[in-house]
Amino acid sequence: MNVTHTHNRVGFGPRFGAFLIDSFILAFLVSLLVSIFMPEHMSVFSRGQYFDAITGAGGPPSEEVMQSVWRVSTFMAHISMLYMLIEGFTGATPGKKILRLKIGRPDGSRGDQGLYLTRYMVKNSPSLLNLLATTLGIGVLGQLAGIAGMVIFFGAFMMLSPEHQALHDRVAHTAVFRRRDLRG
Question: Which pLDDT tens digits describe the chain residue by residue (184 residues)?
Fold first, then answer.
């Protein structure tokens, strides 16, 4: 493996920081959009029923609560996928942009939209498989999404290696750098 420029790659800390920033932005955005476009389902949040239903606390929820939880969860998943698509087009989520990080090629050269979209599809394969499973009604895709989710989650810890590449980076042939360190 060509490990040139691995010393310029960004490791776990800054990437986790970008993830936290993106999580806060996304939580705010989803809350705002749910309150605007799905006000009839907001009561599941205000009464604490959403978290009770997804955690199983308080006994079995009513059919009405379960339908609201399903609709809100599906809406949240779609908004998350669209939000992450920012990285697929620009090479950086808003969190990465705030921290001045950007996706590039492993050798430290700048990426292009094809590279960014490839990484997006690999990194978000669990969500994409779930979308296909629910859209097409193919249950096995949902099961594959669960497996893909575990692989992506545990593969993220590979960024702790000296190469600072998560599994999705290795598969997509990408790495994360500070913008100033990218060349070309």
Answer: 444 567 799 999 999 999 999 999 999 998 888 888 877 766 666 666 666 666 667 667 678 777 777 788 788 888 999 999 999 999 999 999 999 999 999 999 999 999 999 999 999 999 999 889 988 888 899 899 999 999 999 999 999 999 999 999 999 999 999 999 999 8
Please report whether residue 133 resides in a domain: yes
Q: Is residue 72 part of a domain?
A: yes
| 2 assigned to some structural domain | no
pTM: 0.83
Q: What is the DSSP string of 123-141?
A: HTHHHHHHHHHHHHT-HHH
